Amino acid sequence: METASLLFHLLPAFVLTGYGTYAVLEVFFPSLRDADFNRWEVDDNSGSYVEIMGWRKMLKPPRVIAQGYLSERSACLFSFTVGTLMIAIGLLLIRHLAGIPQSFPDWFNGQR
């Protein structure tokens, strides 16, 4: 039972590490990218939607304030930076919660 509890607590760290790995791999393998990989959009966050089995049904579309396209280099740099940050946070969480690897210091417990 302790193993199941530990894996449940580690689930957010695994998700962060996995998504970060995917974001970094998107930079090196262009075939993983979406068609709108470099598109950005800012909305007023007033829209709502329901997603059922991968299909998104818009109840009220959000009002778009600004949108555009980044250059390919900027989009790759942003994806790489966010992915690396997510991997680092995920690995720190794994070290803090699971205690492995023991050779790596746990900065959150105060024991170095």
So what's the overall shape? extended
Order of helices and strands: HEEEEH
Number of strands: 4
Q: For the largest beta sheet, what order do the strands appear in spatially? A: 1-4
The overall average pLDDT, rounded, is 82
Structural class computed from helices and strand pairing: alpha+beta
Which runs of at least 5 residues are low in confidence (pLDDT < 50)? none
Give the DSSP E fraction (strand runs of 2 or more residues): 15-25%
Span of the ends, CA to CA: 29 Å
List keywords for this structure.
112 residues; alpha+beta; 4 strands
Task: Give a brief rundown of this model.
The chain has helices at residues 2-28, 72-98; strands at 39-43, 48-52, 55-60, 64-69. The chain has 112 residues and is of the alpha+beta class. The protein is extended.
Commentary on this structure:
This protein is α+β, with helices and mostly antiparallel strands and about 110 residues long. It is about 50% helix and about 20% strand. It has two helices and four strands. It has helices at about 1-30, 70-100, and strands at about 40-45, 50, 55-60, 65-70. The strands form two sheets. Strands 1-4 form a two-stranded antiparallel ribbon. Strands 2-3 form a two-stranded antiparallel sheet. Strand 2 and strand 3 form a beta hairpin. The two termini are about 30 Å apart. The mean pLDDT is about 80.
Architecture blueprint of SSEs:
Blueprint lengths: L1 H27 L10 E5 L4 E5 L2 E6 L3 E6 L2 H27 L14
Antiparallel strand pairs: 1-4, 2-3
Helix pairs in contact: 1-2
